[in-house]
Design a protein that fits this description.
7% of the residues lie in helices and 29% in strands. The protein has helices at residues 56-60, 87-92; strands at 11-13, 20-22, 41-43, 65-66, 70-74, 83-85, 106-110, 115-120, 133-139, 154-159, 162-167.
């Protein structure tokens, strides 16, 4: 006896001389890929990191933070931490009662909602006297994404009197 199965559709099973159709479920399609991570990564304090006696308001000035961006707080583990707080706690350098600090020394914060965001160090008087506090305004991500121009990656250059177009990758 010979059995033939077509996994993409109905399959005939050929026992003797009468074929019998057996339903075979269609393959489950793979799930759609998730959203592509968008956004910029900002190392808070740049080369100085999250440290004492640094002006984080000056650091943030002129930067545009949008939903999807990431803040990275880098500091020696155990020396500092990061609390996300509200405006009042920020002004008073108060650690939130139920707040959990980020304390790995390499902490990522993804900006998921627009609005004002406040961060402080909760170690001793680092916020009050050391200036370890950051406030930023997060903008909504634009839903308008212009389609790329087919000529956007071409640049022209001249060789003598001849203009040469070449693709720049």
């Amino acid at each position: 006896m010979k059995l033939v199965i077509d996994v993409l559709s109905w399959s005939p099973v050929l026992p003797v001389s009468n074929p019998v159709l057996v339903p075979v479920p269609a393959p489950t399609p793979a799930p759609a890929p998730g959203p592509v991570p968008l956004g910029n990564m900002f190392i808070v304090g740049d080369d100085y990191g999250w440290t004492l006696d640094f002006d984080y308001q000056a650091w943030a000035k002129g930067k545009e933070f949008v939903v999807g961006d990431k803040l990275v707080f880098i500091y020696p583990k155990g020396a500092h931490n990061v609390y996300k707080v509200n405006g009042t706690d920020f002004q008073q350098c108060t650690i939130p009662v139920f707040g959990e600090p980020l304390s790995s020394g390499y902490d990522w914060v993804t900006l998921t909602t627009p609005g004002r965001k406040w961060y402080i160090c909760g170690v001793r008087k680092h916020c009050q006297k050391g200036g370890m506090k950051l406030v930023i305004d997060v903008l909504p991500r634009s839903t308008y994404l212009p389609s790329p121009s087919p000529w956007g990656s071409y640049k022209g250059r001249r060789l003598g009197n001849t203009r040469v177009l070449g693709r720049v990758d």
